[in-house]
Amino acid sequence: MNLPKDFKYSEEHEWVKQEGEKVRIGITDFAQSELGDIVFVELPEEGDEVKADEPFGSVESVKTVSELYAPVSGKVVEVNEELDDSPEFVNESPYEKAWMIVVEPTDQEELDELMSAEEYEEMVSED
């Protein structure tokens, strides 16, 4: 399982990469492998507000549709439009090409509640 060590992770299998005042968000390698082939990604619009632990979009695979849960609250400042035409990026490159949204967090402390790569790895290996 591929897990960048400098990212943070949520219990809902999203990753968070801190980029100055903003965070880039996507789903983990573990999540995409559990879902199977991704055929559609639904994301919010730029300017939308997301709230920690609440759905901000969904991914559809050949097996199921899964909600995406915001790991932090804030304003969406960028959306990965490439996923409209290439949802397979989620399977091929979950940490590079398949980032989903960039958020300006409203509460930096929410980031402290997320897991390290080691903690996330421990959680998924217990399942």
Q: What would the keywords be for this entry?
A:
127 residues; alpha+beta; OB fold (Dihydrolipoamide Acetyltransferase, E2P); three-stranded antiparallel beta sheet; 5 helices; 9 strands; 35% strand
Explain how this protein is built.
- The structure is a single chain.
- The chain has 127 residues and is of the alpha+beta class.
- It has a single domain, classed as RNA polymerase II/Efflux pump adaptor protein, barrel-sandwich hybrid domain (OB fold (Dihydrolipoamide Acetyltransferase, E2P)), CATH 2.40.50.100.
- Helices cover 23% and strands 35% of the residues.
- The chain has helices at 29-35, 82-85, 89-92, 109-112, 117-126, and strands at residues 8-9, 14-19, 22-27, 38-42, 49-50, 55-61, 65-69, 74-79, 101-105.
- The strands form two sheets. A six-stranded antiparallel sheet has the order 1-2-3-9-8-5. Strands 4-6-7 form a three-stranded antiparallel sheet.
- The modification N6-lipoyllysine is found at residue 63.
- Belongs to the GcvH family.
- It comes from Alteribacillus bidgolensis.
Shape-level CATH architecture: Beta Barrel
Shape: globular
Q: How many separate domains make up the residues?
A: 1
| Spatial order of the strands forming the largest sheet | 1-2-3-9-8-5
- Low-confidence runs: none
Report mean pLDDT, rounded to a whole number.
96
User: How large is the share of residues in beta strands?
Assistant: 25-35%
* Structural class computed from helices and strand pairing: alpha+beta
> How large is the radius of gyration?
13 Å
What distance separates the N and C termini? 14 Å
Full CATH superfamily name: RNA polymerase II/Efflux pump adaptor protein, barrel-sandwich hybrid domain
Number of strands: 9
How is the CATH topology named?
OB fold (Dihydrolipoamide Acetyltransferase, E2P)
